[in-house]
Amino acid sequence: MEWSIQEIARLTGTTSRTLRHYGEVGLLEPSRTGPNGQRFYDQEALVRLQRILLLRQFGLGLPVIAEVLGGEKDAVAALRGHLEMLERERVRIDRQAESIRTTIRKIEGGEPLMAEEILDGFDHTQYEQEVTERWGKDAYQQGDRWWRSLSDADKAAFKQQGLDVARDFGVAREAGEPADGAVAQDIARRQVEWLSLSSEASREYVIGLGEMYVADQRFGRYYAPEGADPTPYAEYVRDALKVYAEQNL
């Protein structure tokens, strides 16, 4: 079974131009090219594309992705590794979401806050080995030094800034503001500035992050009202970040 380049572009939300570029740089060759030049992809190519898109979501650039895929001989083993990463991230996001819900409930109810509850899920040191393996020791140490340099008040302010951005994205979508309009683009700017506080927010990283919001509904829930389907909100944020990144990064 095989799929045309147009079908793959539609299913992944990317463009035919992007898929052709992947082929030009040797990252994703079509399994067959028709007489009219149309490209087709088989199951093996789709599995490789899945891995490419996943690594893009983690903020890796194309040259690094080529190195990673070039060093992986067993596709199933590689996918198991990716799945394990996503499972760990899902658990962390769930813990953070529950921590934030608890904080909101206690603040609104005038209850005392417990540090263990507020900070549950925010222990970045548990990912030291993973970050070091993928991005190098310097990348981890830089982020670790930055986080440890913050006071408790600064850490709380950082988290609040992220929540404010998420809230404003949700409000903008509810108000019908276009993702490429001035309001949404100003919020996108704030989110990129927020991301830049802890790491370099490159174009590839920001676009990949937006795609990850859509791929995993747990991320989308940060932007959606309680009980609402998070997908449309995640797609709105993704589109706004993509426009901002392409125009400004």
UniProtKB/TrEMBL annotation:
One GO MF term: DNA-binding transcription factor activity
Coiled-coil residues: 76-103
HTH merR-type domain boundaries: 1-71
Keywords for the protein's UniProt record, in alphabetical order: Activator, Coiled coil, DNA-binding, Transcription, Transcription regulation
Record-linked InterPro entries: DNA-bd_dom_put_sf (IPR009061), MerR-type_HTH_dom (IPR000551), MerR_fam (IPR047057), TipA-like_antibiotic-bd (IPR036244), TipAS_dom (IPR012925)
Protein name: MerR family transcriptional regulator
The organism of origin for this protein: Kineosporia babensis
UniProt lineage: Bacteria, Bacillati, Actinomycetota, Actinomycetes, Kineosporiales
